[in-house]
Amino acid sequence: MTPLTTPSAAPLSVWPEALGRIVAQSTRWKEIVVLRETRSTQDHARQLRPGAVVVAWRQTHGRGRLGRSWIDTGEDGLAMSATIEDDRSGRASVIAGVAAAEAIDRACTQASHGALEVGLKWPNDLILSHRKLGGILVEAHSGCLTIGIGVNCAQQEFASPLGSTATSLAMHGVGIDRLDLAGELLRALERWLVENDDRVGEAYTRRDTLVGRHHRFSTPEGVVEGVVVRIDPAKGLVVRTSRGDLLLCASTTSLCAPDARS
């Protein structure tokens, strides 16, 4: 394993002011809430107005997509949720993935580690060296969307069963300040939320880890099996099957266990 160089971590006391400066210069973000501890940044953010962002020093009961749990490990990860108006919900998860991957690369470069080339696995995983580095959760409520982003930063190991599937920045010899990453996430989300579908699709494709490979997907109509053709940011996933090309909606589709042929 590459030796880890860890920068001096900014204390929680400076987070509100530092992130508040970014919000003050933003046209989208209206409010920043920094919590020492919360069960879920998603639950806290959904009580706030569009433009509010919640960041936690420690999240104790995070959750993932389709009711799954998100395993937190003390203060080793970054948990952030941002609430926006629900204008084009079909592409929010794709945008958040692109923004998060870009933010991680930028934060690592600024910490003199160089970009890690974080990949994206549809619909909501951040991938590094074939393992999950983080995840995206988009939830709709009262005409709004809450975009949750979780990134594994300082974990040195993961207990079973995550030990074979999860990774962190620290496990790749990268030490960054979570505050710096939070700032980059705010900026990246603001940039990508106003981009058109073509730009979003191009950015996603450059990082995509599914296209051209055989996978199995769980859908309300049953399991769909085939080769992933493309990701449509506004609509979902196009899969080539024995019945022809099918469009799978992100909100109701999940990836099955890894396929031996993928």
Structure notes:
This protein is an alpha+beta fold and 262 residues long. It is 23% helix and 29% strand. It has helices spanning 15-24, 41-45, 92-110, 178-193, 197-207; strands spanning 31-35, 52-56, 77-85, 119-121, 125-128, 131-141, 144-152, 214-219, 222-232, 236-241, 244-249, 254-255. The protein has a seven-stranded mixed sheet. The chain has a five-stranded antiparallel sheet with strand order 11-10-9-8-12. β10 and β11 (244-249) form a beta hairpin. α1 (15-24) runs parallel beside α4 (178-193) and α3 (92-110) crosses α5 (197-207). The radius of gyration is 18 Å and the shape is globular. Mean pLDDT is 88; it is low at 1-6.
| Number of E-type strands | 12
Stretches where pLDDT is under 50 for at least 5 consecutive residues are 1-6
What do the pLDDT scores average to?
A: 88
Secondary-structure content class: alpha+beta
SSE blueprint and pairings:
Blueprint: H1 15-24, E1 31-35, H2 41-45, E2 52-56, E3 77-85, H3 92-110, E4 119-121, E5 125-128, E6 131-141, E7 144-152, H4 178-193, H5 197-207, E8 214-219, E9 222-232, E10 236-241, E11 244-249, E12 254-255
Parallel strand pairs: 1-2
Antiparallel strand pairs: 2-3, 3-7, 4-5, 5-6, 6-7, 8-9, 8-12, 9-10, 10-11
Helix pairs in contact: 1-4, 3-4, 3-5
List its traits:
single chain; 262 residues; alpha+beta; globular; disordered N terminus
What is shown here, in short?
With 262 residues, the protein is α+β, with helices and mostly antiparallel strands.
